[in-house]
Design brief:
The complex is a heterodimer.
Chain A lengths: L12 H24 L4 H12 L9 H9 L42 H5 L2 E10 L2 E2 L9 E5 L2 E6 L2 E9 L5 E8 L7 H15 L3 E4 L6 E5 L2 E7 L5 H4 L3 E9 L2 E4 L6 E4 L4 E5 L4 E9 L2 E10 L4 H15 L3 E5 L2 E5 L4 E9 L28 H7 E4 L2 E6 L4 E6 L4 H12 L3 E3 L11 E5 L4 E6 L2 E7 L6 E2 L9 H7 L3 E5 L2 E5 L10 E5 L8 E7 L6
Parallel strand pairs in A: 19-26
Antiparallel strand pairs in A: 1-2, 1-3, 1-9, 3-4, 4-5, 5-6, 7-8, 8-9, 10-11, 10-12, 10-18, 12-13, 13-14, 14-15, 16-17, 17-18, 19-20, 20-21, 22-23, 23-24, 24-25, 25-30, 27-28, 28-29, 29-30
Chain B lengths: L27 H20 L2 H17 L1 H4 L5 H30 L11 H12 L3 H13 L3 H8 L3 H20 L3 H4 L2
Classes of the chains: A alpha+beta, B mainly alpha.
């Protein structure tokens, strides 16, 4: 097709065009090949070699490796190129933070340093490694726990551990060493990890501030400054059934969807819960400031719409996390800015509030979440339309409408009465439709946006069961969609997008995303109006 | 986020062959030095994310290292690491697509990553990005490395005839898409 939509006419220019496009393609790939020759291959090899000393066999999962290390088992031998421990001392003998050392060093009189550090957990706040400053990344903390003759923690990306000996005079010997072998993104994470682990191998002294507020591990050319890590609020965490409320990705919070995703850690070391679609079970332990799942299984299946949430929950829980309780909410934080926010769903001794309750397998969402109308009732009452929303008036036996442009007050009156009170929130300031307010009726999976006090769009959550009058909703197939509407497809960064607006006789368009182009591809997203979508 | 260390979705095993008795097996380090830049280029072309290319190539090389005792006996260790690189790149691409969808729900703009050499060859990379995964891989192996069909098939884990189809369809689709563009656009 040409630019103006007319069919492309074969002609004399075609051979030239074909040759030119082939030339363009070859030139582009040649350029890429040339660019790749500029990568620093030897630096990449050194990074890999540096990591090899800390690698444990692949068969050892992260949490299992961490537990082995907690038990003081060294997976790899090491120390073959460790510096002469007798050479290194701290630079000036001062304790950290410029505080004057107490008599006999920074230790408390009568209590040896090793005993004071036993069971303590720390977070790296600043460091200098063999190649210069170590970048400390907020979302990828470096942690260190000293216990049972081992030092262990998370080195930005991977769990690590080694044997450690701490002398009364602050001498430190780190021997052996093992870590998991995953790679994390972005590359800076691995740079931080490599630099930290290399520095730790050269550590020769440890210095604890008199008030316990800081710890400095030093060696020839290396200096690692730690602050105390927050401890796990075990008393509140254990024995309570928690219900997932939000999924955190950096500074963005997304509401949990699907079945209630519960989490319960019992005092006997077992855990139960769910992701919103799959059941979780396993065992947990606390390693310093982190909760680790030493055995972890997820059973069941997920609809595509819940796969992302499932992956997010499993990643946060499975990677190990810190826990904090604030304002009645449990905040779990894992690496890379990923987190989960739970609210207490029950605190009972017999576990009756466990994950099996209210989490039926049928995905109906009928979980006893109160007397508000559930999705089935909402599906009977609210109708999706290209020009807005419709709602059934049972008494009149007719459908009334909330077209785009309807005043906010009318929208709230109608939809709150049908779906329960929606959650009002400011719209994202980055939205191109300049919406200033959004409202989510989570049980119905319906979100609307408003601008200037008027309705401008609606969109569905993946678990919504709302449909158009013709029965089209999330999960409808392309074949069903095309029976109901004339559609137009386009590939975009969102996937296979469709719009129903191609038919001149049709009302305003409904848009969405299909899971593919085949007849059996299903609708994964559905919307109408001026939506907030970035392509 | 940590990534799984499982292999990707190409499951055919590489062919085994006893090393010729008179030759010296290459070391892992020599293979790394020889192949790493090529893996970076391959990862960039297949994933469409040059910023991730070194990361993908490094992970592929790490897997090569972990499997070196086995892969070293293969007739073409390079085919093995190419297959891993392609699988990792395709997995990365699928995940990024899924994340892009999620971003819509979050009301956030996507993580825009300009295609390789964007300013110079934008139209070509835009067309490459629209190809299905196997076609994209076949096209990359053809144009980047000038691989013959049987080696492309070896890397993709399919028969030569299937590889030929992937390559033919990929090249045809590229040509069609570029020719349908405004000539000024296609030159970018």
């Amino acid at each position: 097709m040409t630019d103006d939509g007319t069919p492309h006419e074969p002609g004399d220019g075609d051979r030239i065009a074909a040759r030119d496009t082939e030339h363009d393609i070859r030139t582009a790939f040649a350029s890429l090949r040339g660019d790749s020759r500029n990568v620093d291959t030897m630096a990449a090899l050194r990074r890999l070699e540096g990591r090899r000393r800390w690698v444990v066999p692949v068969a050892l999962g992260g949490a299992v490796a961490a537990v082995l290390l907690l038990l003081g088992l060294t997976v790899l031998g090491g120390g073959d190129d460790a510096p002469d421990q007798n050479v290194a001392t701290s630079d000036d003998g001062d304790s950290v933070d410029g505080q004057a050392p107490t008599e006999g060093g920074s230790d408390d009189a009568g209590v040896d340093l090793g005993a004071r550090l036993e069971g303590t957990s720390w977070v790296l706040v600043e460091g200098t490694g063999l190649d210069g400053p170590i970048t400390v990344l907020d979302d990828w903390p470096v942690t260190m726990t000293i216990a049972d003759g081992t030092v262990s923690g998370t080195a930005a990306c991977n769990g690590y551990g080694a044997d450690v000996t701490i002398d009364d005079d602050g001498g430190l010997t780190v021997e052996g060493g093992a870590s998991e072998e995953a790679l994390c993104e972005p590359p800076q994470v691995m740079d931080t990890e490599s630099a930290y682990l290399a520095a730790l191998r050269f550590a020769a002294t440890v210095d604890l501030a008199a008030d316990g507020s800081a710890l400095v591990v030093s060696g020839p050319g290396v200096d690692l400054r730690f602050e105390p890590a927050a401890s796990v609020p075990q008393a509140e965490l254990v024995g309570t059934t928690w219900a997932l409320e939000l999924l955190i990705d950096d500074d963005v919070a997304n509401p949990a969807e699907g079945q209630p995703a519960l989490l319960r850690l019992d005092p006997d070391g077992t855990l139960t819960g769910g992701t919103g679609c799959r059941d979780l079970s396993g065992e947990w332990t606390i390693n310093g400031a982190e909760v680790l799942f030493t055995a972890f299984a997820a059973d069941g299946g997920c609809r595509p719409a819940l796969a992302d949430q499932d992956g997010h929950v499993v990643t946060v829980l499975g990677d190990g996390f810190t826990a904090e309780i604030a304002d009645g909410r449990l905040v779990l934080s894992s690496q890379g800015g990923h987190g989960l926010v739970y609210v207490a769903a029950g605190n009972d001794d017999d576990g009756s509030g466990g994950p099996d309750e209210g989490a039926g397998d049928d995905g109906s969402g009928e979980d006893g979440r109160g007397g508000e109308p559930g999705p089935d009732q909402a599906g009977d009452a609210v109708v999706l339309e290209g020009e807005g929303l419709g709602f059934v008036e049972p008494d009149a036996g007719s459908i009334s409408r909330l077209p785009f442009g309807s005043p906010a007050g009318q929208v709230f009156d109608v939809l709150d009465s049908l779906l329960g009170e929606g959650e009002r929130a400011p719209a994202s300031p980055e939205c191109p439709n300049q919406a200033d307010r959004s409202v989510l009726w989570s049980d119905a999976g319906l979100q609307v946006e408003l601008r200037g006090g008027e309705l401008i769009s609606w969109s569905l959550r993946p678990d919504s069961e709302l449909t158009t009058l013709t029965g089209i909703g999330i999960g409808s197939t392309r074949a069903e969609l095309e029976e109901a509407y004339v559609i137009e497809l386009v590939d975009s960064t969102l996937g296979v997008e469709f719009t129903t607006g191609d038919d001149p006789g049709a009302p305003a368009a409904i848009g969405g995303v299909l899971s593919g182009r085949g007849d059996r591809a299903v609708i994964t997203d559905l919307w109408a109006g001026e939506i907030c979508a970035f392509r | 986020m940590r990534r799984s260390s499982r292999m990707g979705d190409v499951t055919d095993e590489p062919r085994h062959a006893a090393p010729p008795p008179t030759t010296v097996s290459p070391t892992f380090e020599s293979v790394f030095v020889a192949e790493y830049p090529a893996m970076v280029a391959l990862a960039a072309a297949v994933s469409g994310r040059p910023s991730d290319a070194e990361d993908i190539a490094a992970e592929a090389m790490q897997r090569l290292q972990l499997n070196w005792g086995k892969v070293n006996d293969y007739e073409r260790p390079g085919a093995w690491v190419r297959r891993v690189t392609i699988n990792l790149a395709l997995s990365r691409r699928r995940r990024m697509t899924a994340e892009a969808r999620a971003l819509v729900r979050l009301g956030r703009p996507g993580d825009a990553d300009p295609p390789p050499s964007a300013a110079e060859h934008e139209s070509v990379w835009a067309a490459v990005a629209k190809l299905p995964g196997k076609q994209r891989a076949a096209v990359a192996l053809h144009y980047l490395e000038d691989r013959p069909i049987d080696e492309i098939a070896d890397v993709l884990g399919c028969s030569p005839s299937t590889a030929r189809v992937h390559l033919h369809r990929g090249r045809t689709a590229l040509r069609d898409r570029l020719q349908s563009m405004d000539p000024r656009e296609a030159r970018r």
